[in-house]
Amino acid sequence: MSEKLLVPDIGDFENVEVIELLVKQGQEIKENDPVVTIESDKSSVEIPSILSGKIESISVKVGDKVSKGDLLLSISNTEKKDENSSDVPKNTENIIQEAEKYLKKNPEQKILEQKTNMQKQEMIQVVSEGDVDPLETNEWLESLSAVIEKDGNQRAHYLIKELINKAYMEGANIPYTQNTPYINTIPVSEEKKSNGDQNIERRIRSLIRWNAAAMVVRANKKFPELGGHIGTFASAATLYDVGMNHFWRAKNNKFGGDLVYFQGHSAPGMYARAFLEGRLNEKQLDSFRQEVNPGGLSSYPHPWLMPNFWQFPTVSMGLGPMLAIYQARYMKYLINRGLIKDEGRKVWAFLGDGEMDEPESLGAIGLAARENLDNLIFVVNCNLQRLDGPVRGNGKIIQELEGIFRGAGWNVIKVIWGSYWDPLLANDKTGHLVKTMNETVDGEYQAMKARDGAYVREKFFGKYPETKELVSSLSDKDIWRLNRGGHDPHKVFAAYDKASKNIGSPTVVIAKTIKGYGMGKSGESVNTTHQTKKLDIDDLMYYRDRFDVPLTDKQVKNIEYYKPDPNSPEAKYIKERRLQLGGFIPERTTYAKPIKAPPKDIFDNMKESTGTKEMSTTMALVRMLTNLLRDKNVAPRLVPIIPDEARTFGMEGFFQKIGIYAHEGQKYEPEDSAQLSSYREEKSGQVLEEGINEAGAMSSWIAAGTSYTNHDIEMIPIYLFYSMFGFQRIGDFAWAGADSQSRGFLIGATAGRTTLAGEGLQHQDGHSHLLASTIPNCISYDPTFHYELAVIFREGLKRMHEKKENIFYYITTMNENYPHPAMPKDKLCEDGILKGMYKIKEFNKHKKTKIQFLGSGTILREMIAGAEILQKEYQIDSEIWSVTSFNELRRDGLEVERYNLLNPDKEPRKSYVEKCLGKTEGPILAASDYMRMNSDQIRPYINKSFYSLGTDGFGRSDTRKNLRNFFEVDKEHVVTYGLSILAKEQLIASKYAKDAIKKYKIDTDKPMPTKL
Ligand SMILES: Cc1ncc(C[n+]2csc(CCOP(=O)(O)OP(=O)(O)O)c2C)c(N)n1
Ligand SMILES: [Mg+2]
């Protein structure tokens, strides 16, 4: 039987060109194999076969225009998918699975609830001053207790929810609180106990505390300008230690390893531990913050500076939380795509409470909950202080964060009070202790820990007779000993245990601590704690005594480090614990295999002329990606990342071809399901569609770009964005990505101040290349033609993913459609494209006067057009150079100049710019669609008259033609300025320039565009 394959519904397009035939007559094909590629003026997309069989005849050829319903092929021996088959439709399947999940979950849940009920303690009764009828309140509360006892938590929850609903419906519009009382989330009865040796752990912790502080003090004694922090780690030592001793599993040949984002300024604590573990020596500790000579320890976690140690740069507040969320999400992405095993690995992120003020810190928590990232654990160290003072003096940061995270759908575990409080809370029969805890604000909590036990008795417990009575038998010293949850290893252990076992949602552990814990008068819980980096001898003695560090007074005076004997129980314990957990943390390694770059001919079609056919470089890039998806080495490793702009860049064809990653698959039939490029979400989807979220997209790019170290699998992230919303928007992430040694492509699409026409001031990018140039390992290009892009892209694949160079590429692509010439045959062309410039054209007819034109991006085309006019109308010859990267040319120039200056007695080297232009004739005019500073970068490296044109100033919406006229980068200005430059150089008479000014109606009184 013979069947016909027709053009499917391709949306709003008609008469779309066939640009590739992917099959031949007589070929056997399977359902879903692509058969032809069609291309509209915006995007190209493959048409897959809906039939399997042998191709009898092909009815289209390259260049044909097709519309919906046109015949493509005839196929014999077909097996067509039976539309009436009894397959369960996709979405029905999802519904069944969902239902089954609940059916399975419920009975177990019930048993668990019953168990915990039996252990329930006596209920705390919270008294309220505004209670007009305490008797009635009591009746309600008792009823609730009875329900909990008889039918369990779920039932009680249900009733409360119904009551609230009813209240809303009756008009009582009071919001239901997102908060629980100011006590620990985990009741004492449910705390999992650690099996660690608490005494040894405390001793180890004390040594780490001491060495961390000593390291900062010693560095600052030597060089007071170095700085550093003691107070942060002092507050977080227990939070880290419990993780290190019991929870964080290192990467080794059996396990992928947990990933821990350490709070940046707690770095001294990590070095101090590594010292005890024998990974760092005393000399290295003494090189804290002195990194110019090799072996120094970086101020903060910087993988670039300590590539075998630090994994994640975190010190720019707010980046860590977002990067960690997207790391956890990316880990699930790799698992769901079948690229790594699901080993139950976790991502832990340590954050400061002040850091939570950064919009980025909370900006992506919704995604973490929505995508059920139960592999993610945040630990927020709430020492109630940031740099200048209290985080929330008048409120309670822990309660605020609890509300926000609960509202977002996170599992929240508050660790507020240490074990010494347990008996007091158990005896709080009237509820006045909890009431006081609820009422006290953070400013007071901080002040109390800066004073003493007597002060706490008076200010805190003295508030109500009931609480005063509660501590009547305690001494002031006992009261002072009442510890905070984050300093209690038992409470922290229980919280981490629960967090690591949580299923279905991310967890945040919110721990209360004291900033500068143990630093005494020199800096415990005082507003200046953060800045303290020097401790005098008395402070150091206090610190030693506070933590029982076995050092003599003399050793303290010398601020000596303490390293236990390798055979001591402490040294053995610390090693044994890490051995149990698989190795050391942090540690940065990579065992990823390189990806073989695609063969040289993969982009051959990009080296041919497009004839009269016009296309944009964005389209050329999408075509290249489509080609790459046919390369079996590269295809599975591509991670296309787009923040809601796939249609802008003509990438909607990817939806069907490789699917959009969605952890739940697709639970609905998309509105456009009948169309070729319909919106397809899939659990194993490849595209990361981030929504309108550049910071998130960049975080994904960093996660994928560092996959080679964090997951030992080399991946190729390609993040496409509006170029204006790239470095300008997420510059700090880009810097962190560079520090992380991310490998991958950033594509600044719709680039150029005058090339993106109508969008206006906020959209038109005339400086992203300058921003890119500030990042040392970012290689950037501004290509004009498809073959340039192809050469650059393939080289990027090779350098980054085959040769594993720690660089990344920033390439701008444009949305202006124009024909592309064939790649020049000159052997040096490819080399020139990569180095930054090559000669693309020469006008040599008149052999009298010459000018050199250097053009970049679409403005190169204006120069070519201008040069033609100059030759035709003014008998002026020119050489035209396509500059693919002023940034790379400058880098080369800098290096050569430095070499020549440092080697005055040697034969001077020539910069690449000089090699190209040194022997040419005439002055130079350079231009791009970016600020003049872009092309001016190479001015010092060529000893010739050099002029530049560019798009300095604010963009604005208008037509391309008007914009180029406004910014003076159109062919008319190229001609006019060209003539004027030649006149200035006394190569022609000035009247020619004046004539051109008149001819092109150039207003010489118009102010600089920067002033308009
Ligand atoms: C983006 C950014 N802004 C400012 C700083 C400077 N800075 C470093 S630590 C700090 C205070 C941090 O307070 P918190 O998050 O509460 O951490 P803690 O030291 O109290 O644990 C500030 C403002 C920074 N590192 N990053
Ligand atoms: Mg803080």
SSE layout and pairings?
Blueprint: E1 2-6, E2 16-21, E3 28-29, E4 34-39, E5 44-48, E6 51-58, E7 65-66, E8 71-80, H1 90-119, H2 134-151, H3 153-169, H4 198-222, H5 231-247, E9 259-261, H6 267-276, H7 282-285, H8 319-336, E10 347-352, H9 359-363, H10 365-370, E11 376-382, H11 397-408, E12 411-415, H12 422-426, H13 432-439, H14 442-449, H15 453-459, H16 465-470, H17 476-481, H18 489-501, E13 507-512, H19 537-546, H20 553-557, H21 569-580, E14 614-615, H22 617-628, E15 638-642, H23 653-658, E16 660-661, E17 681-682, E18 688-689, H24 694-705, H25 707-710, E19 716-722, H26 727-739, E20 745-749, H27 768-773, E21 778-781, H28 786-802, E22 808-812, E23 818-819, H29 828-835, E24 837-843, E25 849-855, H30 859-874, E26 876-883, H31 886-902, H32 912-917, E27 924-927, H33 932-936, E28 946-949, H34 960-966, H35 971-984, H36 990-999
Parallel strand pairs: 9-10, 10-11, 11-13, 12-13, 15-18, 15-19, 16-17, 19-20, 20-22, 21-22, 25-26, 25-27, 27-28
Antiparallel strand pairs: 1-8, 2-4, 2-7, 3-6, 4-5, 6-8, 14-23, 24-26
The structure holds thiamine diphosphate (TPP) and magnesium ion (MG).
Thiamine diphosphate (TPP) is lined by residues 232, 235, 265, 315-317, 352-355, 381, 383, 385-387, 391, 515, 530.
Describe the structure.
- The protein is 39% helix and 14% strand.
- Residues 82-90 and 105-125 have low confidence and may be disordered.
- By secondary structure, it is α/β, with parallel strands linked by helices.
- The radius of gyration is 34 Å and the shape is globular.
- Thiamine diphosphate binds next to α5.
